Amino acid sequence: MQYPKKKTKGKMYRKVMILFIISLTSCMLVVSPSLYKCKKTEESDAINCDDVSDDDTIQKLAKAEEQNSKLKCLSKVLTELPIQKGKDKGTNLPAVFPHHGDAGHWQVWNRALDKRFKGLKALDRLVTSGNTCSVWEVGANVAAQDSKDLMALYGTCKYHAFEPVPDFNKKLEENWKDENQMTVHKFGIGGKDQIFGVSRNALKGNDGDATFLDDSNKQAGEVKIHIKSFDYVLEKTDGIPSMVEMNCEGCEWNFLMEALKHGWIKKVPIVQIGWHSYGDVGIGLRAMQLCDIRVLLSETHVMDYGLAFGWERWSLKE
Predict the structure, then answer these.
(1) How confident is the model at residue 11, as a pLDDT?
(2) Which sequence ranges are marked TM in the entry (predicted)?
């Protein structure tokens, strides 16, 4: 969603050094003497392990390089954190708001909106060549606005809007009832089929405009949320989509890790994510999780642009 211009209370601040020390401690590289069998080449910082036959050494080196990638990611992410002090509107007590809508981060979020639908080379190639293309919008809410904007540019693609909240998906279905290129799915997507209950209070999100389910699925509630497995959705739709567009107010944390574990998302030409820092786990751990996901995505994709807890896009390596 796009946030209206508004004045935010309090001053922006970042506990970068504290979070950085915590993250640095958790990502310390433990390098055994056997790793020195691998030598850096003179031309670059690349590590040459052609002469290494010790499987254990190679595994340790791979782990060290993975941790180093996470550390580099964290050093960047921790300078971009959207945090602001303020007053909790329910109790008027001091609070910290980590979400872009509350923290004055909405300006950056809004500026990134224009980037989302430019430079979509994979869709351009598919449309130009006359091949089938499909877009999944995960967290479509009541309007599937991203699909509407994309449809204006790529009208021949098939669109699938996923929204598990009954009050939202009823309106969504009504809004798209006359569009043959769109299929509305009244469920969310995940690693396995499941049904859980959430309270209506948990669905209020940002003044009732957002859907947040990530932590709320730990508790019972009167609103039933249906999740269908990746395998089910891939079979019932067009298979691997050409693009996944995510703005699901917190579901991305579980969704992406489960999708990476499953493997299907590693074949998607375009993955576009709107990050959120909601949740009881806290923004520090969210920063580390974001880097875990980025490192895994970087194995198969290249980041086109990105901002921590804003928007970012990944394109499949050619």
Answers:
(1) 41
(2) none
On whether the CB atoms of residues 223 and 195 are closer than 8 A, the answer is no
Q: What residues of the chain score a pLDDT lower than 50?
A: 3-25, 27-40, 206-212, 215-217
Question: Token digits for 247?
Answer: 């703005």
Q: What is the pLDDT of residue 90?
A: 59
How does the average pLDDT of the chain come out, rounded?
A: 77
- In angstroms, the CA 13 to CA 216 distance is 28
Q: Give kind and range of the element (H or E) at residue 173.
A: helix 166-175
Domain-wise residue ranges, the chain? 115-316
Where does residue 7 rank: exposed (0-12), middle (13-18), buried (19+ CB within 10 A)?
exposed
Report pLDDT for 28: 43
Residue 228 has a pLDDT of 96
Domain 115-316 sits in CATH at 3.40.50.150
Instruction: Give the residue among 316, 311, 317 at the shortest CA–CA distance from 273.
Output: 311
Report yes or no: 248 and 211 within 8 Å, Cβ to Cβ: yes
Contacts of 293 (CB under 8 A, 6+ apart): 256, 257, 260
- Of the candidates 236, 171, 234, 225, the residue with the CA atom closest to the CA atom of residue 197: 225
Is 297 in a helix, a strand, or coil? helix
158 has which bridge partners?
Answer: 134
User: Which run of H or E residues covers position 59?
Assistant: helix 55-77
pLDDT score for 99: 54
- CB 178: neighbour CB atoms within 10 A? 7
Q: Which pLDDT value is given to residue 217?
A: 47
The pairing of beta strand 223-229 with beta strand 188-190: parallel
Question: What are φ and ψ of residue 259, in 5° steps?
Answer: -65, -40
Residue linked to tokens 């948990």: 202
What is the distance between the alpha carbons of residues 251 and 168, in angstroms, rounded to a whole number? 16
